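Lecture 7 notes: from sequence to structure.

We start with a single chain of 287 residues. Read the sequence below before looking at the structure.
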Amino acid sequence: MIAALLEVARRRRLSLEGKSIGVIGAGNVGGRVARKCEALGMQALRNDPPLQRKTGDSKYVPLDALYECDFITIHTPLTKEGIDKTFHLADAGFLSRLKPGVVFVNASRGAVVDSEALKAAIRADRLQAVVLDVWEGEPNIDVELLERVDLATPHIAGYSFDGKVAGMIMIYRSLCEHFHLKPKFDVKDFLPVPEVPRLEIATDDASDEELLARTAERIYSIARDDRDTRKISDQPPEARGRFFDALRKNYPVRREFQNTMVALDRPRTSLAKKLRGIDFMVEGTGL
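Now the structure, written as tokens:
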């Protein structure tokens, strides 16, 4: 998510700092996204009706409070019934109420967004940029929509190696609890040395966000995933679903920012704070 925001901001010549982002679905993933966006200097508005009812916390706002946000990102489960139904949550009515020029991101489930309505909104130039990691009809995705979005990835937002290991350990611990066994292993027992354990960054005269984008892409190139996903359009129609599945099945090892220590060539407090806020380690003190 952070790599996507930094890449879109760079391509569109936007500044993230000072912008507002509406986070729809503020649970484990959405909550982390909101905190990282705040670390980048954005104002995060959280919408999560189930959490609001459960906690009564005023930080969870109604959906219509997000319509004037500069960015919208969705992190809900897909539900088709009940008061919190999310199927086609982002339909034509929803998209028409968003602030013109919004950057729209979906990293939840494909059918949370009405693809036809989204294509219409893009054709009408209502959206400044669109980022999709999930697609209706996976693995047979809408190629027209693929060709119209700014960044496309093949449902791999949760595919970091660290995340896979963490998920495995969750299952392992549940099994240990079920069979009344004491766990012997933890996440650290399965994580190899990161490919990029340390990065030296020359701060020069670039902005914080440009330096953040450069640092992030040294660990993970979302542009590469975007290029690979767009190759689906080159496949014959009957092969596109298999190609989409293969992108996921053969996805390369991707490590998270938290594994890398960043060394700045000179003190730069604002940059160091943002790097830490998106989970990089920063070498030295007083930065």
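Residues 52 and 60 are 6 Å apart (CA to CA). Keep this in mind for problem set 3.
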